[in-house]
Amino acid sequence: MTQSPMYSQNDDIAAPAGRRPRQATTATVLLIVIGALGVVLSLLLVSVLGDATANGAQVSGVAEFLVFAQLAVSGAQIVSGAFVLPGRHWARTLGITMTSLNLVGGILSLFSAGAFALVGVVLNVVLISLLTGRDVRYWCGG
Question: How far apart are CA 9 and CA 2, in angstroms?
């Protein structure tokens, strides 16, 4: 078994090379794209809820909370993506946390959204596996 020159013999010691691992770049792009889509969809839902309220419909406080929570999670994903790129440990942790929240939401929405939610679940699983992988873990100093 050959070992990449990027790592020492002891896998517990981080030894990032000068070049960023491809997995860190991929995770960054996915975090930013998924976060941006979440922000756009959340803002669209805020608009829809506002129109519904303006037309006299009752809007659940829980629905409003969930929309604003998703907006915050999506914004945090964008921030974490921007800082995983230069290798910030806190950004990797934030990305894993926010992606896990999205994964839980995706699993819960499998019952109502079907195939569309399945795509989100798969993307979040891929993203979590990238962020917890050895290359990104070492790149972010963890």
Answer: 11
